[in-house]
From TrEMBL:
Organism: Flavimobilis soli
Domain called 4Fe-4S ferredoxin-type: residue spans: 150-179
Record keywords: Iron, Iron-sulfur, Metal-binding
Protein name stated in the entry: Succinate dehydrogenase subunit B
GO biological process: aerobic respiration; respiratory electron transport chain
Keyword ATP-binding: no
Molecular function terms from GO: 2 iron, 2 sulfur cluster binding; electron transfer activity; metal ion binding
Length: 249
């Protein structure tokens, strides 16, 4: 299987960058986009040329590090699938694939396909955590949690923080990401004590860097964890709750 690759090359943040065209003539339909980049880099190294910088870690669709833009779509053509699971069976022999970084104002390019996603980290640092008393772990049945509630919280907690939702949004909004964090932490007993403070801190931090949500829905289509669009409503709900009940309630 022969594929023509147009891959973004950018030496450093100040470099304007450009696309480089390469061919891979031994690709297979079972390979992923990330494995395709591996194959290309192997050949470049053998030829004494500079390989493309890109991120990946688990390659099991869990860590979110592999996110790139493929043919103008974050992660690739398959819905709700990370780049490391986007199989080349979506393309045919001789086709051209364009691979570039996740495109968003808040994701400056570090090098080639690697972007700085620390804006997401700042949101989590602001309040995406729970403060608890350190000590002996309580028995599992000390605090009963309704099964349906626990399942809902786990569904929202599935967010892997890849940032594709922001890159897919025409406004560069992060409401799907922030809403998923607020939803799962507010649902469980351990997160209720800081619910108001958390909502205010995370939403305030989000609004420093990210755009407004207009409910386009592209974010949910590209989310590898399948976070539902309902998560964006949680942001406004939690913000309104702070106004009505006080930041510490």
């Amino acid at each position: 299987m022969r594929l023509v690759l147009e891959v973004w090359r950018q030496a450093h943040p100040a470099d304007p960058g450009r696309f480089e065209t390469h061919e891979v003539d031994d690709a297979t339909p079972e390979m992923s986009v990330v494995e395709l980049l591996d194959r290309l880099n192997e050949r470049l190294v053998e030829e004494g040329r500079e390989p493309f910088a890109f991120e990946s870690d688990c390659r099991e669709g869990i860590c979110g590090a592999c996110g790139v833009t493929v043919d103008d779509r974050p992660h690739g053509p398959q819905k709700n699938t990370p780049s490391c699971h986007q199989r080349l069976s979506s393309w045919t022999d001789g086709q051209t694939i364009r691979i570039e970084p996740l495109r968003s104002r808040v994701y400056p390019v570090v090098r080639d396909l690697v972007v700085d996603r620390s804006a997401l980290d700042r949101v989590v640092k602001a309040g995406g955590h729970v403060a608890i008393q350190a000590g002996t772990a309580p028995d599992a049945d000390t605090t009963p949690v309704d099964h349906a509630l626990a399942e809902m919280a786990l569904d929202f907690a599935a967010c892997i923080g890849c940032g594709a939702c922001v890159a897919a949004c025409p406004n560069g909004a992060a409401h799907l990401f922030v809403g998923s964090k607020l939803a799962h932490l507010a649902a469980l007993p351990g997160g209720k004590k800081e619910r108001g403070r958390r909502a205010r801190a995370m939403v305030d931090e989000m609004e420093q860097d990210f755009g407004p949500c207009s409910s386009y829905g592209e974010c949910a289509d590209v989310c590898p964890a399948g976070i539902p669009l309902a998560a964006i409503a949680v942001v406004n709900r939690e913000r309104m709750r702070v106004v009505l009940r006080g930041k510490n309630d």
